[in-house]
Amino acid sequence: MAYPTVSAPYGFRPINRVDGMPYAGAIRQLPVTQAGAMYYGDLVELDIGGIVGTATSLTSGAKLGVFVGCQYTNAQGQTIQAQYYPGSSVTNALAFVVDDPMAAFKVAVTSDGSTIATVTQAAVGTNVTALAGTPSATTGDSGQSILSTSPAANAAFPLRVIAVVPETATGANAFTEVIVKINLHQYLTATGNAVA
């Protein structure tokens, strides 16, 4: 049995950099205006005018990074710092985003967005897609994960598996968590965003 046991997806957690440097908590604060909620660990994209929003596709396209909290003004005029962005009845919203193109993230593996699954060591070096899952407004955590059947040599997939997490193995070659980097990072794409 895996220790610790991964019981549900939790989104993408920054752990270090691909070059081995530790993650020091660096973030970028960017404006957010979307109507929908964003949760700690969600993949995000940079939209026209530098506005951050939840990734429109988890299976293709460039990504900016991972949402790790926010600050906004609520309906009572109070400044709130929170783990998730409620998406309505707020103003002056800033998203806190881990946008380092070299950042590495730990993430759970699922078969359908909620059921924990595994990949083998052969997934390392492949590209993968993500699944939305069910986020929690109680904890503020994302429900995103990677799809267990997606590892492939597909250049359109947005994430690259760089390692498995041995501590959460359920067998000799079955891993419920992996370490990924953003394969198609918006800061590194040759074509930038359209002009507003």
Description:
This protein has 196 residues and is mainly β. It contains no helices and 15 strands. It has strands at residues 13-17, 28-31, 43-46, 52-54, 65-73, 79-82, 91-98, 103-110, 127-128, 130-131, 145-147, 159-164, 169-171, 174-175, 177-182. The strands form three sheets. Strands 1, 8, 9, 10, 11, 12 and 15 form a seven-stranded mixed beta sheet that branches. A hairpin with a 5-residue loop joins strand 5 (65-73) and strand 6 (79-82). It starts with 12 loop residues before the first strand and ends in a 14-residue tail after the last strand.
- Content of β-strand: 35-45%
Which percent bin holds the helix content? under 10%
- The biggest beta sheet, please? 7 strands, mixed
* Number of extended strands: 15
Count of the domains: 1
* Residue windows where pLDDT falls under 50 for at least 5 positions: none
From N to C, what is the helix and strand string? Answer: EEEEEEEEEEEEEEE
Question: Overall 3D geometry?
Answer: globular
Write the layout of secondary structure elements.
Blueprint: E1 13-17, E2 28-31, E3 43-46, E4 52-54, E5 65-73, E6 79-82, E7 91-98, E8 103-110, E9 127-128, E10 130-131, E11 145-147, E12 159-164, E13 169-171, E14 174-175, E15 177-182
Parallel strand pairs: 8-11
Antiparallel strand pairs: 1-8, 2-7, 3-4, 3-5, 5-6, 5-7, 8-15, 9-12, 10-11, 12-15, 13-14
